[in-house]
Every structure is written in C-alpha cells, then in structure tokens.
Design goal:
Elements: H1 11-29, H2 38-56, H3 61-87, H4 93-118
Helix pairs in contact: 1-2, 1-4, 2-3, 3-4
Length: 124
Amino acid sequence: MGRQAGFRELIVWQKALAFADNTLTLCDRVPARRGAGLVPQLRRAAISVPSNIADGYDRPAAEQLVFLRHSRGSLFESATQLELVKRRGLATTEMVLALLSDADELDRALNGYMQYVERGKPTI
C-alpha cells in the first residue's frame, strides 16, 4: 500500500487498534438485550479511536490534530461507556478495569503523538 500503510507503523495506532479489538471482544460477551443501547455506541466509539488516527495521518499538522482530538474524544467516550458497563454488571470488573487501564495508556500515547505533530514532525 505504500505511503498509505505508514499509519500502521505508528505505535499509537497499534495501541488504539488493540484497544478497539479488545473492546469489541467485551461487547461480544454482553447479552444483546442487556446492552442494547450501550453496546452499539461503545463499539462505534472504540472503532473511531484508531480510525481517526489513520484518517488524519499524512495530512498537514493542523488537520491531523483535528483528527487526533476526535480520536481522543472517542477514547473518552469509550471510557465513559466502559464505566457504565462496569456499573451495570454487563462484564467482569477485571475485564473492564483492564480496558480502562489500556485507555489511560492510550491517552498518554495520543497526547505524546499530538505534541510530536504540534512540534512539526519530519516529513516521511
């Protein structure tokens, strides 16, 4: 895929993809009736995190930062929904806490990458 594949090399994207995948695994385990409103929204938010990183990749810095902010917003949305999953007993506490820990780590990685882009990353 050439330059389009460059975003796959980003550690922040790899972490975001793993977070989304693990969140989808959790969603698959929630009984459909019990998570009817919450689970579809959690799926969308989690998928949006790596998708926005990829979508913003290879754009001018100002545009890329917009996509990274959207990614971070989706991460916060996912974390909020995971808290609701935990409160409602829709998944094991251990599974949710592991995802929330991953979300915290991913937030730090996103912040670092945003600072890197703001400073003017080298052209690839």
